[in-house]
Design goal:
This protein is an alpha/beta fold and 274 residues long. Helices cover 39% and strands 13% of the residues.
């Protein structure tokens, strides 16, 4: 990966691609005053169900409001799918390895990461607006090592665009799932069922996503100066990780409350239930 060779797409081209999504989901971004375009930072947030709706809209709104186009660190599985991985790369995403993250930071670029990765995208029933980060602290370690501020952000609404009918837990417990996962290659591909994408429905019995207003909020930057020189210290990385998670959880709660009014306005109220 040669990070210096990437040129962000124009805002005009992004708007053209996302015109329908912007109308349907009415994205709103708050907290742009917390972004300093001249100070490279690591944006850390929650990943929405399926990961295809909220991420492009967040990046586009951030780009529109601040001029910052962050380079996204993607889960490894994206880049083994023919065509899909190369498409993501055209929009600046890279395989989320420590080496790629290091290269981006050493070249002074804004970086975006979803610590929940594919597991958060493959949401289970009842996991709406929950962080599923397991024991991951890699993002904290990289931020400390390179002196990057972390800018937490929250994405609200995407997890409610579908109703999950059958999730990864049900798959793993089923007779069919147990048989499939006995195959070592399939098990590795699905990470023991973690990457099983849920079966869901949107508006009524259809696959059309519900028109949930997608609201984003950017929190105050978290300086890593307190932990300078401690990137190899697991306790320091965990402490930073938990501070970031607490910020995101607080913003999600705030967004849920404020977004409830927007859900009941105009034509959306006919398609959305409380």
């Amino acid at each position: 990966m040669k990070s210096s060779t990437f040129t962000p797409p124009s805002l005009q081209s992004l708007d053209k691609r996302l015109r329908m999504q912007r109308w349907y989901f009415a994205p709103r971004l708050r907290g742009v005053e917390n972004v300093d375009p001249q100070r490279p930072a690591l944006f850390v947030g929650n990943h929405g169900l399926y990961g295809l709706i909220d991420s492009p809209l967040f990046v586009a709104e951030l780009y529109r409001e601040t001029g910052v186009y962050p380079r996204a660190l993607g889960d490894h599985f994206h880049f083994v799918i023919p065509g899909w991985g190369s498409m993501l790369q055209r929009f600046g995403a890279v395989d989320g390895t420590p080496e790629n993250c290091q290269e981006l930071m050493e070249s002074g670029q804004h970086v975006l990461v979803f610590p929940g990765g594919g597991r958060e995208v493959a949401m289970r029933k009842g996991e709406e607006h929950r962080l599923v980060w397991k024991q991951r602290t890699g993002f904290a370690r990289m931020a400390i090592a390179h002196g990057y501020d972390i800018i937490p952000f929250a994405s609200a609404g995407c997890d409610y665009t579908y109703d999950v009918l059958y999730d990864g837990d049900a798959f793993r417990q089923s007779r069919f799932g147990k048989r499939i996962l006995k195959n070592s290659r399939v098990n590795k591909l699905l990470r023991d069922g973690d990457l099983f994408m849920p079966l869901a429905r949107g508006v009524g019995p259809t696959l059309l996503p519900k028109p949930e207003p997608l609201w984003f909020q950017i929190g105050e930057p978290i300086s890593t100066e307190r932990w300078a020189g401690r990137s190899a210290d697991k306790e320091a990385c965990w402490e930073l990780r938990e501070e970031v998670a607490t910020s995101i959880h607080g913003m999600l709660a705030e967004l849920d409350q404020d977004r409830s009014v927007a859900r009941r306005r105009g034509w959306r109220k006919w398609l959305l239930k409380d």
